[in-house]
Amino acid sequence: MKSACKRWIKISNLAVIAAIPTLISLAFLHRAMAEDPGACFMINSAGRTVRLAKLCSTTKAPSDSAPLDNRVFRVPIKRRLGGTPIIDVTFNDKQTFEMIVDTGASGTLITLGMASTLKLEPTGLMKAQIADGSQVQFSTSKVNSIAVGGVIANNLEVAIAPKAGIGLLGHDFFGNYNLTILEREVEFHPR
Fold first, then answer.
1. 50-100, pLDDT tens digit by residue?
2. Which of the pair, 53 or 20, is modelled with greater confidence?
């Protein structure tokens, strides 16, 4: 009788040991699924997670630049200048201009014509180093907002270039995003 009991204890211990990894895997799988409600959620009084993705979307993307997943924004490239993409950029929720996406520019530069259309008055001066290494001085002014496909930056100082033919969208606008430049569009991925 003793040997039969020992065998049964050994067999049942092996069965428990064999089942433990499966139970642990199921516990982790269940926990991972339960703990990933996305970026926007609340816990109700019963302790249940309520997803709020539809309520948390604070910006609406224009129809031609719909977000891929509430975080990545795609903006169509209108054309290219020397291979560099040109996209539509909206200032102060009213005026849209074509601008170069300049990954090498630390700040945003607008043309004198853009400043005139936006009725901007110079409020300061800025020295900048341009691509050829020389130093230039620009007048500056503030804009209330700059928007591109759902990405918005508020209260930015922009340089006004009297001789530029097109504006440059710089890192002061998209510095919190990683950019992916595709064949026909630019993607803005939050960092």
1. 666 665 554 444 444 444 445 789 999 999 999 999 999 999 999 999 999
2. 53
Looking at the predicted structure, is the pLDDT value of residue 47 above 70? Answer: no
116, 92, 112, 111: which is closest to 100 by C-alpha?
111
Count the neighbouring beta carbons within 10 Å of the beta carbon of residue 92.
13
- The residue ranking higher by pLDDT, 132 or 60, is 132
If pLDDT is split at 50, 70 and 90, which confidence band does 16 have? very low
Domains and CATH numbers, the chain: 2-55 (no CATH), 60-190 (2.40.70.10)
